[in-house]
Amino acid sequence: RFDNPVANGAAANAVLGQADFTSYSSGATASTMTSPSDCRIDNDGRLYVSDGGNHRILVFNNAASKANGAAADYVLGQPDFTTYASSCTQSTFYGPAGIEIGSDNKVLVADVYNNRVLQFASSSPLPVELVSFTAVTTAKKVEIRWRTATEVNNAGFAIEKAIGKSNTWEHVGFVEGHGTTNAPQSYTFTDKAGAGSFQYRLKQIDRDGKFEYSKEVEVAVVALPASFALSQNYPNPFNPSTVIGYSIASTSHVALRVYDMLGREVAVLVNRQMEPGNYTATFDASRIASGVYFYKLEAGNFSDVKRLNIMK
Question: What pLDDT, on a 0 to 100 scale, did the predictor assign at position 125?
Fold first, then answer.
């Protein structure tokens, strides 16, 4: 690249395809080429380089500011930066050579050995395919999860939140993207939201500063219990099943068991580590005889026992 050369023999200001001005090796990576033959710049400052030996077109965003050996931002004709196979499909080349760019940013590529010219629409849309976006609550936190199928020129995702149904959004975090990749990617972000109803959305930002919003997801965070508690089962008496409610005030190992009148264990409903929250457990007594039984909750230093009645 020559920045405003005004004299014979002026030195170049930057080089793409090599790490410095004295290297000349070929390669098939995001920052190397094999026999480049043509290049054009579109109205948004993107540089398209015909990398004929690798059967692809390399695209550099903001080409005028790229440093020596800078990596391309994305590639046409190949699924990634290290593949260099030739073929004849809607998205591949065999010896691409000349490039032309129209006033509407449509790109025309002479695909020499396939005896054709391929036209590509303007590259301005954001090239990140979001395939899922969900929010789940854990204690006083909301965990945001999303996945992408492909990414091109992706700088990352800003996470925004609104309270209730309001349209007032606040920035709560940022997760860096994977740039350009055809491999599926998974992301998570945890927000300390507190109790209430919230909306979340993603602001996907590309490396040119362009951005696009995802659809919103809604989530309700229930206030955490202030103390441990064991509720009376309902219905009671019952046949054949009943529901037992209980509250966990802090992260604890929780055990909920059912005993007969002689203290013999007849069922284990819960036996695991649990986060704070309000929970229910269903007791199915279809194979247990009628009579009076007891159920006991143990969580940390808390313990409580209540009676239930199976009536068949």
Answer: 45
